[in-house]
Amino acid sequence: xxxxxxxxxxxxxxxxxxxxxxxxxxxxxxxxxxxxxxxxxxxxxxxxxxxxxxxxxxxxxxxxxxxxxxxxxxxxxxxxxxxxxxxxxxxxxxxxxxxxxxxxxxxxxxxxxxxxxxxxxxxxxxxxxxxxxxxxxxxxxxxxxxxxxxxxxxxxxxxxxxxxxxxxxxxxxxxxxxxxxxxxxxxxxxxxxxxxxxxxxxxxxxxxxxxxxxxxxxxxxxxxxxxxxxxxxxxxxxxxxxxxxxxxxxxxxxxxxxxxxxxxxxxxxxxxxxxxxxxxxxxxxxxxxxxxxxxxxxxxxxxxxxxxxxxxxxxxxxxxxxxxxxxxxxxxxxxxxxxxxxxxxxxxx
Length: 349
Hints:
Oligomer: single chain
């Protein structure tokens, strides 16, 4: 039975994304990053996280640096403080913190999680069930009919600190990529079965490239080879381990290209450039999912001046670092009409 992340922990955690300014905080956080900044006036900023997200602390200036001396990425700290804001950026103003023994920590409370994975697995399994080409379906089933692989895939993050950086993130991202790729493939007359199979396989290497026990980080193999190369290798290993291989060597090479030609966010680069129509379809679907992740639910910095059309989004930036906005107009819609923004995440067709 694959792990459903919502079953792992029931302890309430402060919502770091939506907690109101001034809310008091007293709970453990994982230390995601320790940044030493400044030259003339050095200071340190910690990035702390729990299963709802992450937040930077207010600076620890020179007189406060002894409070954070020795704290490193991956530590768990019991923190007392309050949610604050500086230059329209949310931060955690810390009044007290102490490092906790890691063996006393329930990591499911501290690592971001997508929640219930069931609807995403239902969508993925429904799509692989619609792949009609026998050898293509057989290759997909080497992974997604394997309970051990499903367990790892169902908790693996899609990135370490960018898009879908949460337990189960790679599953959500894969479902989104598959849905987008299916639509693009139909419009541009690509092979829909092949594009769908490539979408489902494109991030399998992250189950080997990432580790998530004690925080999100690269494995040794992930640091040396990267998820695309590991994914292509994993694909070859599974296919060639079968007494009767489920596909030909040429078909294997074609599927490996679909995995190798994908890299979802800059500055990461794919080992090879997309050289087939289906690889291009998956590449653009991959980027669409990665670059829009989290924007729909991002909190705003306020409604702005009366009459303003744009609402500034807090703590999110575009792929080029630009400030992002949400439109404030209802476009004349009746209040009783709900806009269609959710279809396809995760259900699909």
